[in-house]
């Protein structure tokens, strides 16, 4: 890459993001984002500062009887009559006064009384930090932002991030405080997270820039604490590019491997003092900026190609080693206008990460006058690693493992531009539920049976809330699918079943976001039993229960104002990952599957999904016309 094109690329998110920090406001109400031009900037960690938390609710433990009733409702469409009877029997045994159910519930309620959120630490541990598969491809989402023409400049004013709301209700903002200067560190059985808040003795004043697999510590503040001007930042990045003209060994690839392999390599490398210091520099840095090389992807369309780049770096010969996969936020900038982000998922969900990125986007597109230069700017430092022959071997095997996983990934991104949220809204239907019901129909038409489906439902109405599962396959959605494939069904029957299915989904969603979901409650009962050495109740180990959580459809809505797509991989070998961004007049989708599974096909499911959406619109229109 030449310096001129690099210069252009660097006039992007880079220095906006590089100089963005989250800080508390004096009145403790809102997290504040300070962008270039502000004076002192501090960074904080969740819980240390209270902002808006009084308005938030404490995450409850649902009543056991309600969870069990709901559980039976959710497994009903998935089970034969015989299996359902078996499930009913297990629930009844579980509710028997002699069973451990009440004891577990009481222990869970005690934990809830003693903690600010009984679930979140457990959830982070079991869902993320103890998960041993690679974070790359399997866990970390990739986000594409609108392709740029590189004419934008960065911001200069101080701004606050508005508090996210659900209707009028404020949502917990704690995830925003764990996105910057945060990193995952591989561990023996469980990884850990580190965050360096502004009052930390090692609070960072630098970002990490990766180019040609070389890592650089790039100071973004002058000696007096002022942020660098754009010209100065460009100078820093030119220096990086000059110092990394030929590719370095792919150290970054090690972090894409299974966690235990990465831990082995990491601990070996840490024996060298310089390596250890380098790791810490990367972990402490505010964000990682990946200056990618051209991807020359002839296999995929433009949208899909960008998804691959953001999600996994498109392979070891491309940009997969130009990453630090443990970093919570890696801003990726490609040479052909691609911008986006690769995110480590342990501390935050897609919506707040995208909200932060979207917040920065206007600064990219505005022409902003040059600010005065900061004094005492230190030059970037290249982080050279000492690599032993066994680490070189590990890099080779990490490259092979990642390349074969990427080859196995069947991922497509696409814009559905027939309609957007406007159609369901005009028909007084929840757009999210409408899409979920269409997904049920798409799957049913493809396979002839319903499927256990996971949709992420936000728990951010609660203090430090993350997510619970919206079980999208309901008896009502199954009836809708059966009615739609039945040639004898009338339009009015179809519309009625559609409305019933959408209502059922929205009802389940409302319960989840009010903290009355069942999956995290069951997880809590399981974990509290394990912690107290109590045998797991049969209900929670039974194949029927396990199959109800075998998420062959793993889905999530991540809405934004601009055309961004988030993508993730399926969570089971014979499943799909479906992420969508419903915009007012269009919808963006990313659908994934595994090529190694002969029964799945992302493009085919997406094609059925488009048909299901259009069919739903058609029946609504036909029904309206017949009412005229
Ligand atoms: N009639 C007309 N309009 C309706 C409607 C109805 N019956 N029901 C909803 N709408 C409107 C809403 O008012 C809203 O309007 P807006 O576009 O002006 O904001 C819009 O339709 C969207 O509502 P809906 O589709 O029902 O979804 P939602 O915004 O309530 O979101 C979830 C539902 C489940 C996606 C959301 O609650 C959630 O939990 N998101 C978290 C996702 C997450 O964490 N993902 C993790 C990814 S890593």
Q: For the largest beta sheet, what order do the strands appear in spatially?
A: 14-10-9-11-12-13-3-19
Question: Which structural class do the helices and strands define?
Answer: alpha+beta
Biggest sheet record: 8 strands, mixed
Could you report the average pLDDT, rounded to the nearest whole number?
88
What is the third-level CATH name, the topology of the largest domain? Chloramphenicol Acetyltransferase
CATH superfamily of the largest domain: Choline/Carnitine o-acyltransferase, domain 2
Helix content: 25-40%
β-strand percent reads 15-25%
Our Rg estimate from Cα atoms comes to 25 Å
Number of helices: 19
Low-confidence stretches: 1-50, 151-159
Distance between the termini: 63 Å
Which ligands are bound? Answer: coenzyme A
CATH architectural type of the largest domain = 2-Layer Sandwich
The total number of structural domains is 2
The count of strands amounts to 21
Q: What is the CATH level 1 assignment of the largest domain? A: Alpha Beta
Shape: globular
InterPro entries: Carn_acyl_trans (IPR000542), CAT-like_dom_sf (IPR023213), Cho/carn_acyl_trans (IPR039551), Cho/carn_acyl_trans_2 (IPR042231)
Family: Belongs to the carnitine/choline acetyltransferase family.
Active site: 345
Keywords: Acyltransferase, Transferase
